[in-house]
Amino acid sequence: MEKILILGAGGQLGKELASALNKLFDTQNIILSDIKPLEDAGFPTEIIDVLNAEQIIHVIKKYQITQIYHLAALLSAVGEKNPALAWNINMNGLMTVLDIAVDLKIKQVFWPSSIAAFGPNTPRINTPQFCVMDPNTMYGITKLTGERLCEYYYLKKGLDVRSLRYPGIISYSAPPGGGTTDYAIHIFHEALKHQKYTCFLSENTELPMIYMPDAIRATLELMQAPKDKIKVRSSYNLAGFSFTPKQIAQEIQKHIPNFQISYQPDFRQAIADSWPQSIDDSVARLDWNWKHQYDLSEMVKDMLVNIQKTL
Ligand code: SER
Predict the structure, then answer these.
(1) Which candidate in 63, 69, 139, 153 is catalytic?
(2) pLDDT tens profile 130-179
(3) Which of 5, 92, 158, 169 satisfies CB 3.0 to 4.6 Å to 65 for a cystine?
(4) CA 210 distance to own-chain centroid
(5) pTM over 0.90, yes/no
(6) Is the distance from the beta carbon of residue 79 to the nearest atom of ligand 1 less than 6 Å?
(7) Atom 6 (ligand 1): residue with closest C-alpha?
(8) 26: Cβ contacts below 8 Å, ≥ 6 apart
(9) What is the CATH T-level fold of the domain 4-166+211-237, as seen in this structure?
């Protein structure tokens, strides 16, 4: 029987991942943890600071955990505000988890990488699985280093660690936490509340994105794939669809005709400019049959309906 521990479950992905896992595993076998108390989680919860090995070990032993989803991290924009903290949480947190996973014979570990692992000399259109990677944000540096670390632990210690390079994840339930792609979520809330939005990226900044249901399905499909299908042990490219702020605004205007967008690029523009515009995920498609479902127009429709319900 699998017993799953989600670290950093208070973030954008945690709850959605837990409910998707709950279709496969009983509620009491999915343990949610975060550095802050998790309210109304609907699952067993624990407080865990990922830099505190003792806390992690205690919880793993308490529940006899077999799988870990290690989601605790600082994202790109907050990471640039506090690079030392981003390095500490993202890198030392990962290494702590990987070491414990080896010692306690955890069967599988999932760790998210990101499009931020690429950099200015990466081919920006249809970015291939293997290419130049020269991230210039602290977040991106921790993601690229983390990928190397994951592959190292697989090769040298036999740890079954699997990873995806998530594009910007768009979702309506948990709010995003300090990323550069967050505008693509804020825009919906502002469109519905005020019919206008000032974007912190310029109108033609194209970035790869994915809708939450696809991101979650990709994660579970990767984790459920037979071990011999997983040929990439650093992290798989993953794509949904790409768009610019102007294009998403036009799509929203189809539903809210008087919606208006204006642009005031800030420090996040430089981060976005160092990332790919679109991603080639053919290796994931080949190895474990990945295929996205949502495109821009379906995502926009679904986001508007669901955010409307919460207002
Ligand atoms: N969505 C993330 C960010 O913007 C990218 O991994 O930081």
Answers:
(1) 139
(2) 999 999 999 999 999 999 999 999 999 999 999 999 999 999 998 878 99
(3) 5
(4) 10
(5) yes
(6) no
(7) 114
(8) none
(9) Rossmann fold (3.40.50)
